[in-house]
Each structure stands twice: as C-alpha cells, then as structure tokens.
Amino acid sequence: MGISKYIVGLSLLLSIYSTNIKAQEEIPWSPNFRLKWKDFKGEVPHMARAAATTASGISYSFSSRRENGDMKVDYKVEAFFYPTKSWYRPALCNEVTLLHEQLHFDISEIFARKMDEEMSKTKFTDNIKQEVRVLYQRILKELDDFQRGYDIETDFSRNIEKQKLWQKHIDRLLEADKSS
Prior knowledge:
Blueprint: E1 4-8, E2 12-13, E3 16-17, E4 27-28, E5 52-53, E6 55-67, E7 70-81, E8 87-88, H1 95-121, H2 128-154, H3 160-179
Antiparallel strand pairs: 1-6, 2-3, 2-6, 4-7, 5-8, 6-7
C-alpha cells in the first residue's frame, strides 16, 4: 500500500462546531503565548449573550504506510486559536474574563496532547482513516464536555473562587503532561 495522506481540520467553538475554518487565520498553542484582547478579531454576533467567545480546537494530519506487515503512521496534532472566529464585548470583559478565555485555549491543548498520546499507542489497521476519525470525534466530545463543565462550574468566569481552582487544575494538567 502506498503512502496515504489525510488531512482533517477541526474546530470547537466553545460549544459550537464550525465546518469552514481551515482558511481562517490561526494561532498555534504555545506555552509562551498568552491571549490578548487584540487577538479577538471576530465580530460579536447580533444575538450573542456571552461576554466573549474563544474559538479554539484541535487539528491533525497524518500519513500512513504499510511496513513489514505493520501500519506505520506519521502524524501531527495541534491546538489552535482562531482570531477571526473569537470575539469579545469590551464593556463586559476584564482581565478575569481574558484569563477564562485563555484557559479555554489551554484546555484545547490538553486534549490535543491526549489525542497525540492515544495516536502513539494505537495499533492501526488498513482502516486507519476511519479509526483516526473515530478517535478524533471521541476526543472532540471529551473536549466539549470538559469545556462545558469548566464554563458551568466557573459560571463563565463570574465565580472567582471556582475560576482560581480551575486555573490550578488546568495548569497542573499542562505541567503533568510536560513532565511525562
């Protein structure tokens, strides 16, 4: 079997899935990059009730080949922030809100790492395209559930004590993964 390439893109918009983001500007997650309000370049939707929305998610690409009877896979999984799909209302936002939005982006990175780890441990078959798609969809569901839980528990950043607890939890998850 020759080399097959599959590129699938992604995005989880807080809780809204978008299907046409690939051509949009994107910022890859980095431990040294922190969001600023100027990064939120999208227009506030007319009927929006939220103070801000971070459009972030996971993208992956892979190629596969059969080698000595085994499926060999080269892949890349990354978390991205999408500025033109992210927006905020300055009158309703402050530094706590910005931190809350940064943590949404950080959560996307946590799940990108989770997918990367699972890709590395999975023994794929000739049905690799479908197997990766199923893995990706499962990770997106887990990511969405985690993002929703974060918003609910922090009351969208308004519960400062819960926000601080989540910040510590997310920081620990990012650090734990680095030290593994």
